[in-house]
Amino acid sequence: MKVYVLRIGHRPERDKRITTHVALVARAFGASGFLLNPCDEKIIEKIRETESRWGRFLEEIECVRSPLDYVRKWKESRGKVVHLTMYGMKLDEAIEEIKDTKSDLLLIVGAEKVPREYYDLADWNVSVGNQPHSEVAALAVFLDRLFDGKELYREPANPQIKIVPSRRGKRVVKGSEDSEGASR
């Protein structure tokens, strides 16, 4: 199962940091793609730079012109759609059904009020709690439950920087160093 995250309603003057965090969580917690509307080339470039330095997880990082059309086409040819919203069904009640589809997933993460059409197009409208909180948190919790925590320690392709887990200190491997050459 591949998961793509579609961030809609991004407000470039207001949402730079949150949208960047949505993208970083998407890549770190198991997504295979990050899609953005409206376009913000600075965010797309930041995520590509992160992929270059920390290793490649995302197959696709791009802007989407018409997110509604993208969602419709996704449903026709690629898989199922999950809309993360505090108004949806409880995550615990939806997650097993979502996993059982074994279909690729498009996760919709809104930045502002999400138009009704997305609720109607979604195969699942899923809430991660029913109190106001960050869409970054909702995405992280959803992906972690979807992948049963296995996504947290995946190895990316061609990292320039790698963190080596340690009880104390900072162990960082750069380039072709092995874990024994890590700095503290």
TrEMBL record:
EC number from the UniProt entry: 2.1.1.206
A cellular component annotation (GO) from this entry: cytoplasm
Subcellular location: Cytoplasm
GO biological process entries: tRNA nucleoside ribose methylation
SUPFAM superfamilies: alpha/beta knot
Basic and acidic residues composition-biased segments: 174-184
Annotated segments matching region Disordered: 165-184
Name under which the protein is recorded: tRNA (cytidine(56)-2'-O)-methyltransferase
